[in-house]
Amino acid sequence: MKSIYRKWGTTLRWENGAQIRVTESGVAVEDGALFECYPEAEGEGHRNSDDANLNTIAEAVRTAAHGLTIERLILTCGFAEHECNGVRWSEQTRRLHLALTRNHLRVLVDTASFDMAEIERIADALRRAADTEQSPPPRLRLAPNVTAALLPLLPGLAPPNVTLLQTAGGLDGRGMPIVEAASGWPNWYRPSYRVRPVRAPLNLRLECEVTVIDAGRPVAVALLAPVRGLLFRALVDDGVRAWPAAVRLTRIDAVAAERIWYPYGAGSFGAEMML
Amino acid sequence: MTRFTVATREELWLDGRLVERRLSHGQAVEQGGAIVATDARDDALVAACHGAMDELRGLVLPGTRMRLIAEATPDGVTRTITVTIGGHSVVTSPAFLREDVELLRAVTGRKVRPVTADERSLPLLWKNGTAAVLLHEAAGHPLEHAHDALDLPPWLIVDIPLEPRRATFRDVPLLRMRHVHARQVDAPFVPPDDRVEVLLIEGGAYEPLTGSVTVRVAAADRVSGTDAQPLEPFELTWSRDALIFTGAAGDPVRYPGVVCSREGQELVVPSFAPLVLTESR
């Protein structure tokens, strides 16, 4: 059966000092094994991208990162309308990608908001960080931004005392309702009209019977490298000292109930976690 | 005001069967430090892409994965083919497709074994132009980051011009390598009896914070005297200060395609290097 998807959108991007506004519309057709996509003359007027002043946001990041080097800062806000097989929906997006460095350390920040509090907390830890890698403490908290990056790797690997779930809500890349799911991944991820949609777990969250977090434990505040497996590098902060550490996710003691959505994988809800 | 206009046609063929087909076109107008990009269509560029794709389609080979890309700008039309056989890939063009597929077939399906820790520190003989990839990572990317130039022997002359380039009309142009062209002048060497011969590269990286260089070797031989044993793919990482270029021979050889990814923008960087011998401190 032929599936036809259309997208119209405008994105405003601030990329390391350059500002670019991209307006485009396109069609993707899946016909049996063949996927085809092409631009389509705009049928309707685009709504403006949101009114975030990216120069102001970039300046706020610079202020938060004082004393550190901003290796990469990409801010994006966009508005898109989608239509697939007769279903129509829209979305507003904000993305922040930041790589902050000090000496040989680089922290990575990816968020779906322009909230500076998280960046200030990470920058503060990086300014205090030792250069040399040390062992992580035996009891460790993970910040929501760290947890969120781990969840897309957890299907099939999550410890038995936690449950990894796709979170219901919204529509997927084929205009179908995103349903609650723990396996089988019935929904479709389509990050661009140029990409063939694939089945994937969307908007993952982790649940644990224990939700109480010991706020006194040191916390892994940020990733020092992209997560490739259950052994990952993070910046650990005990409130006084901060240091780089290789952390292995083997046991999860608790997962907080409060969650924040992050743009990892096909969407991931980060929650504070206790190892 | 500057204007960049482009049209791109791309097709993916699996074992002689078309599975994906994409058309992209647009323009970016830069004025006063801001870029406005739209998917505006230039009919002449799109027609040029279609014509080039018709030629590329005639080159599709059974038993391969082939990505065909025809890209047209006011400066001309480029034709790029990525061929994958047995997990190994090259990036080539119609003129070199036959010989590059021969190279791929030569390193595919061999009986391989893992590289040992000791073998990782053996001298490396970079064949088939693969030294261009090492120089891309160790000399080219540091230039892009305005880092100190790589310390090279006087007999190894490396030309790596930088220029603003962008992958699509949606991208911000960055200072990137136009090509890597290395040549040698009177640098004879005797290949050591014990060495690793690098035949094909899968990828590489430069870490600007530490100055370390990583090369992922896709195909290599462990050579001991007259005995050659094919090795499994492996990865090597050095501080770029630890690389020692000990000799080179022959004319520059075209390495079959380097697709360089930086800031998410993938660009082909034509790469040439002679046979090069390196050691590490």
How would you describe this structure to a colleague?
The complex is a heterodimer of chains A (275) and B (281). Chain A has 275 residues and is mainly beta. Chain A is built from 3 helices and 18 strands. The longest helix of chain A has 13 residues. Chain A is globular, with a radius of gyration of 20 Å. The longest helix of chain B is centred in the first third of the chain and has 15 residues. In chain B, a hairpin with a 2-residue loop joins strand 4 and strand 5. The model of chain B has no long low-confidence stretch (mean pLDDT 94). Chain B is mainly beta. Chains A and B meet through strand 2 and strand 3 of A and strand 2 and strand 3 of B. Strand 2 of chain A pairs parallel with strand 3 of chain B.
Please write out the topology:
The complex is a heterodimer of chains A (275) and B (281).
Chain A: E1 3-15, E2 18-31, E3 34-39, H1 54-64, E4 69-84, E5 87-102, E6 105-111, H2 116-128, E7 141-142, H3 144-150, E8 162-166, E9 188-189, E10 198-199, E11 204-208, E12 219-223, E13 231-237, E14 242-248, E15 254-255, E16 260-262, E17 268-270, E18 273-274
Parallel strand pairs in A: 7-12
Antiparallel strand pairs in A: 1-2, 1-4, 2-3, 4-5, 5-6, 7-18, 8-11, 9-10, 12-13, 13-14, 15-18, 16-17
Chain B: E1 2-14, E2 17-31, E3 34-38, H1 43-57, E4 65-73, E5 76-85, E6 88-92, H2 97-107, E7 124-126, H3 131-144, E8 156-159, E9 162-165, E10 174-177, E11 180-184, E12 194-207, E13 212-224, E14 227-231, E15 234-239, E16 243-255, E17 259-262, E18 265-268, E19 271-280
